[in-house]
Amino acid sequence: MNRFVRTLLLAGLVLWCFTAQAQSTRLRAANKQFENMSYVSAVRMYEEFLRADRKKDAAETREALIKLGFSYRKLQDSRNAERVYAELVKDNSDLDSEIYLYYAQSLASNGKYRDAQKMYSKYGEKQGEDLRGRRFTVSYMDMNRFYQDSSSYRLSSLPINSRQADFSPMYYKGGLVFVSARDESGAIKRVFNWNQTPFLDLYFHADTNQLRTAAPEVARATNTAQVGGSAPAEQAAETNASPDKGVTKAEIFSRTLNTKYHEGPMTFTRDQTTIVFTRNNASKGKSGKSSDGVRKLKLYIANEKNGKWMSAKEVPFNSNEYSVGHPAFSPDDSKLYFVSDMPGGYGGTDIYVVEYNNGQWGTPVNLGKDINTEGNEMFPYVDGNGNIYFASDGHEGLGGLDIFFAELKDGVAYKGVDNLGAPINSEKDDFGLITDKSRTTGFFSSNRKKGISDDDIYSFRRSCKQLNLIVYDKKTQQPLEGADVRIVRNGVNQDLLVTNARGATQMCLDANTEYEFKAVKEGYALNSARYSTLTQSPAPVINISIYLDRSENTIVKGVVKREVDDKPASGVKVTLRNEKDKSERTIETGPDGGYEFDMKPGAPYSISTKKDKYTSRTKQLKTKSPQVVTDTLGLYGEGDVYELKNIYYDLNKFFIRPDAARELDHVVALLKEYPTMKIELRSHTDARASDTYNMRLSENRARAALDYMVSKGVSPKRLTARGFGESELVNDCGDGVECSEADHQANRRTEFKILAVQ
Q1: Is 0.85 topped by the overall pTM?
Q2: What digits encode the pLDDT tens for the residues 498-525?
Q3: Element (H, E) at 543
């Protein structure tokens, strides 16, 4: 399947331009199909032109071959693309550099890595800016690194796969939502002219456990189903079709979200009541077009109410002039990762991230050149640890799209990207992976089975390289129950394990990782052990023992949380400082926000936190005797919005009531604790009265709150007042809706948003 089409991006972005010249009737007809992006028809007509028994003009033959090769690329027919590009390279010496790139990619997709290496080298010689030529040339000198962990995986094709394309699964309420071009019921079926396949819709299977246990290798009839996406607005056709048969227990996900055009990859918030999904640019059933006549892709957001998905709306960073798709929420829903070909990127499609807070969107930011390349990056997925998986044809891989992994720290892939290797990756297109924190189970998409337009969804299981950790009392040699063992992975805190009655706990090891294991127990001094999987051990199970000495030290442990939602804060540097000898120890929190230290009783200590765009906090710790000190450290972050629960206003009034004054006093105290913090006071009204009146009233209310805080000693330079009127109601009490006074009062509220912390 064509990677550009499947991704619902980039269609129509690259069309070959040629000088005007006289053309044969047959070639003009083929070019017409090519320009309309009807690639199946274009292929047939170019092949007929080239087979025609007549003397051909050399320029016309060259043009036909270039466009034929491009069409086969669009249809992801790598074998025929290889054949055409081989003929081009053999008979022409003055080809554009891209021809050698496309030839190399076709060879790699057919598993011919040595030949691909030569073409990548040729591509690198013809131009110096695109690093893919150099990187792939070096990479294909040694293919072993792509197979290091291959024996750990077991793959199965799912019984929900149809004769058409099925791809991009996403977890939803114990099941999978996925994208499919399977036939609809009925005699008439609309198809996508690009490749003569049905348009995409969202489907659902309710039980992932059933899929994993059923998962046979499904024998399917040969088919050239291929997924479509952006295309000229006129590319919708009607044809006779029959529904698929034998596809088990998959149903339409939502009749309100599925339309007559494409619905593509999607993501859900953690509570699974909000969906962000990809859809063709269309409004009220009418197709929208860019200035060049192409339907781009957009992201839409919808909420579930009473079991139905309602009111799908565009996200604010969509555009009619470029595509936006492939959404993926971070585990705490604070960020949305997505794919776009918007101007200013590094290649064809790049991965971007945008902040999302209480329904408000920030400004998209490119993830940078560590993730994005001159090629195409797409299908992001963020796991429970906040790390990212994505597909790319720009990073070195086995061919087509490969799946990559990167650990993110403050949004940066600080250790580069890792190719997951075989068998997750193949010489064909592999993409759309979802998995758990440790990548022990999951699902992904691939067209490896036949190689042309036949995406299937696969499940995988990864066998565990088991590590047994046993904690002992050093003196008695007895195992210690209830000891905490903190896993530190590549310098960052990860899971916290607890030993059982045998003093033991277990985990699965990841390849190419530096581990430290810190054991902590009251009455004992902290001790640790290190282990590396940068080299492979033949032993199926690894055992590590940690011995703890009796100690008079105090243990301090706790969790760093975000004040806005009380969720653990990862990536925070926590420092324990001995104020007497000035020594310091620092750790970085992982997904659970946890930290542990031991310290000498009686000595003065302080503990502090630091993270970019969050408040720093320092607390003094005093210990007089051995004990366990448990504490929670809260952080305020830029962009956080807090509702002041007890600030209400009388109808049509903007005076500060006594209950509101008490709540504002807490904000005053917060601003005095953090003297560099700046906030925006945001006031809202109910829906009664006119929009203009309510906007003015809310502005007065916000200003009244600001004036009150200034009267309490807060500098006005640190405060901004903004009224929203009735534009952001918290319930359904809009114009003309009868509601109780309590419901109306819930809308008459004030919030504050942190604008800066430094």
Answers
A1: no
A2: 999 999 999 988 877 889 999 999 899 9
A3: strand 541-548
